[in-house]
């Protein structure tokens, strides 16, 4: 494992850690925000290219309005009204997305903190403590994220958390992928397959209505592969509300075991990524709100230049008892695995 200094934040050193398998695949991660900074992924001929959008400097990651490569914690995605009630107590969160809460907190969330780091099981383990009522969430929480590069050319992410009282925990990574290579243009030609026969429609604020709706007969149906841009501008209310795809799909076969939930292939058919998770949902986001930005290696990003597949419990789960529960505490340890595998 290679380790190099990336900079300092509040007097604490921040490092880049390079993980590599015997086949040459590499991932570069950081203890600031438990970030994925680079993924050098093979194509079908074994040629490596960085497929993860991101920045060149630590200072840019300290802004990172698009959450490039960041671990989101304690709660990913949106909570309606920026509040929820648990065990008779109402918790009030930061209103940072209109009247709603998005990704816990834009400035105080886990993506803006320096994590502790140690080598473990051939990978790097990041750990972070978040105190009771920080950002409005109850419970003293101990979080960990383990990154490993597998011999199957996978970037495996293992999340664990404990809390001394029941609280909401829903961690994810907000990596944006472009399988042509970061900064190589639009992802609208990428073909996506989601093993999900239903999704959770939203209101105008991107808060789920509570319905789990079938995808059949709609542009939300990716049960067979479709190009991202094929139907993204269709006259369909959900696409109009979100400016494209920015929804949670209810992945088929959820039973807590690791399973394949998505396949992505670039337009040329030269690089393929599979997504595995043991979680019930995935937020498929097509970079509808990306604006011109300077990326790594002199590259530039723009509208729809990356896509995200954020494995998760459903958005607004704390206010939707019909959704799979994201409440964890002394009697329920949080443990989940996601892997992005290049085949």
Low-confidence stretches: none
Quantity of strands, as a count: 29
Mean pLDDT: 98
Tell me the strand percentage band.
35-45%
Binned, the helix content reads under 10%
- Alpha-carbon distance between the termini? 23 Å
Alpha-carbon Rg, integer: 19 Å
Q: What is the strand arrangement across the widest sheet?
A: 11-12-13-14-29-23-22-17-20
**Number of contiguous helices:** 2
Tertiary shape: globular
Structural class: mainly beta
Main sheet makeup: 9 strands, antiparallel
Describe what this molecule looks like in 3D.
The protein contains two helices and 29 strands. With 343 residues, the chain is mainly β. It has a nine-stranded antiparallel beta sheet, with no helix packed on it. The model has no long low-confidence stretch (mean pLDDT 98).
Summarize the structure.
The protein has two helices and 29 strands. With 343 residues, the chain is mainly beta. It is globular and about 55 Å long.
Brief descriptors of the model:
globular, 343 residues, 2 helices, nine-stranded antiparallel beta sheet, mainly beta
Helices, strands, pairings?
Elements: E1 2-9, E2 12-20, E3 26-30, E4 36-42, E5 48-50, H1 58-61, E6 71-72, E7 78-79, E8 83-86, E9 89-92, E10 101-102, E11 116-120, E12 123-130, E13 141-149, E14 154-163, E15 167-168, E16 172-173, E17 191-194, E18 198-200, E19 213-214, E20 226-227, H2 237-242, E21 246-250, E22 259-265, E23 272-277, E24 281-285, E25 293-294, E26 300-301, E27 308-312, E28 327-328, E29 334-342
Antiparallel strand pairs: 1-2, 2-3, 3-4, 4-5, 6-16, 7-10, 8-9, 11-12, 12-13, 13-14, 14-29, 15-28, 17-20, 17-22, 18-19, 18-21, 21-24, 22-23, 23-29, 24-27, 25-26
């Amino acid at each position: 494992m290679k380790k190099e200094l990336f900079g300092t934040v509040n007097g604490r050193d921040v490092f880049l850690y390079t993980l590599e398998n015997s086949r040459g695949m590499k991932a570069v991660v950081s203890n600031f925000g438990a970030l994925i900074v680079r993924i050098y992924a093979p194509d079908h001929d074994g040629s490596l290219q960085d497929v993860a959008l991101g920045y060149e400097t630590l200072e840019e990651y300290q802004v990172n309005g698009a959450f490039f490569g960041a671990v989101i914690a304690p709660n990913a995605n949106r909570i309606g009204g920026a509040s929820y009630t648990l065990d008779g107590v109402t918790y009030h969160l930061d209103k940072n997305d209109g009247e709603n809460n998005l990704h816990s907190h834009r400035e105080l969330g886990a993506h803006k903190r320096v994590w502790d780091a140690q080598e473990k099981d051939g990978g790097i383990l990041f750990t972070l403590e978040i105190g009771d009522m920080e950002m409005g969430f109850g419970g003293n929480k101990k979080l960990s994220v383990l990154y490993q590069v597998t011999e199957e050319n996978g970037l495996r992410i293992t999340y664990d958390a404990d809390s001394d009282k029941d609280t909401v925990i829903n961690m994810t990574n907000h990596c944006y992928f472009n399988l042509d290579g970061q900064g190589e243009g639009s992802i609208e030609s990428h073909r996506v397959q989601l093993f999900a026969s239903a999704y959770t429609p939203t209101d105008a604020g991107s808060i789920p209505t509570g319905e789990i709706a079938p995808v059949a007969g709609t542009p939300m149906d990716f049960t067979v592969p479709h190009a991202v841009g094929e139907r993204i501008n269709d006259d369909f209310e959900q696409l109009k509300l979100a400016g494209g795809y920015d929804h949670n799909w209810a992945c088929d076969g959820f039973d807590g075991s690791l399973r394949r939930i998505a396949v992505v292939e670039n337009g040329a058919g030269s690089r393929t990524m599979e997504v595995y998770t043991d979680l019930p949902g995935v937020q498929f986001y097509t970079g509808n709100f990306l604006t011109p930005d300077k990326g790594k290696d002199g590259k530039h990003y723009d509208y729809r230049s990356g896509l995200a597949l954020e494995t998760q419990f459903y958005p607004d789960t704390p206010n939707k008892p019909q959704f799979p529960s994201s409440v964890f505490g002394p009697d329920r340890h949080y443990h989940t695995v996601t892997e992005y595998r290049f085949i």
